[in-house]
Structures are given as C-alpha cells and as structure tokens.
C-alpha cells in the first residue's frame, strides 16, 4: 500500500515512536510479556485520532504485539510451571522456547528497521500484519 501523500516530519516521528515504544517497554519489563502490549496500547490510544499514516503504523505495532503476547505468555507460564511446579524440561519445551526466541529476535530486528524507515517517512508493511492492518485501519474520507 502506498500513501497518497508524503508524511510530515511530525507524522514520521510519531509513526516511528509507535515501534520504539515496544522496544523500550521490552527493556523495562523483560520477563513480563504484557508490558510491551500495554505500552504499545497506550501509545495507540493516544494517537488513534491522528493522521492516517500515524494511525496505520500504531495499529500495525499493536497487532504485532498482540501476537507476541500470546507466544511469549505461553513460554513464560510454561517456564514458571517448570521452576515452581512438578513439570520437567522436555524436548517440546526446549523446541518451543527456541521458536519464540527466534520469533522475538526477528520481530526485534524488523521493529528497529521499521522504526528507522518510518522516521524517514517511508511506509513499511510487515508480512501478515500489514494486510491485517489494512483491513482494520481505514483512511479518513
């Protein structure tokens, strides 16, 4: 999707900040997966009436954090059940943890790249999340 106008400096900064918010929250609340989602949700709510470019990128960042929350929460609670419960470390657990580690690493790298590109005013659509964002976020008519 291509935006019909060149976003202004203020718009590009806000759109970029929507991605940076999740990275900052990641550092602040690393063991708790909900912290990223809450930070991104607060930023989204503060900008949901902004320009289409800003709203679109805030929405994409929020949707990506929802999927990461689901994956990371399962890993978090599975780990807690092993530490404090009677479960053992299994091949399934190790495989799942490696999978979410890879997904988190990829998401981290893509988030940094997207924050840099949107700060330049470029529109970046993520695979899967971009088309989903297009369905949710409509331009003002």
Written overview of the protein:
The chain has 141 residues and is mostly helical. It has one domain (9-136). Helix content is 74%, strand content 0%. It has five helices and no strands. Helix 3 (52-84) runs antiparallel to helix 4. It is elongated and about 55 Å long.
* Poorly predicted parts: none
**Order of helix and strand elements from N to C terminus:** HHHHH
Counted up, domains total: 1
- Quaternary structure: single chain
- N- and C-termini, Cα separation: 17 Å
Structural class: mainly alpha
Helix content: over 70%
The number of distinct helices, counting runs of at least 4 residues, comes to 5
Number of strands: 0
| Biggest sheet architecture | none
Let me know the average pLDDT.
Answer: 87
User: What percent strand?
Assistant: under 5%
TL;DR?
This protein is mainly α and 141 residues long.
Topology:
Layout: H1 9-28, H2 34-47, H3 52-84, H4 91-119, H5 129-136
Helix pairs in contact: 1-2, 1-3, 1-4, 2-3, 3-4, 3-5
Pick out its properties.
mainly alpha, 0% strand, elongated
């Amino acid at each position: 999707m291509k935006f019909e106008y060149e976003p202004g400096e203020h718009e590009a900064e806000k759109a970029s900040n929507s991605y940076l918010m999740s990275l900052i929250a990641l550092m602040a609340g690393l063991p708790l997966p909900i912290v990223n989602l809450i930070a991104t949700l607060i930023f989204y709510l503060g900008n949901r009436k902004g320009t289409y470019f800003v709203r679109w990128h805030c929405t994409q960042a929020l949707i990506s954090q929802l999927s990461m929350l689901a994956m990371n929460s399962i890993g978090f609670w599975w780990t807690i059940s092993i530490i404090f419960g009677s479960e053992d470390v299994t091949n399934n657990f190790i495989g799942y943890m490696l999978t979410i580690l890879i997904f988190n690493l990829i998401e981290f790298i893509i988030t940094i790249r997207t924050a840099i590109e949107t700060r330049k005013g470029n529109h970046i659509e993520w695979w899967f999340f971009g088309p989903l964002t297009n369905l949710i976020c409509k331009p003002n008519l």
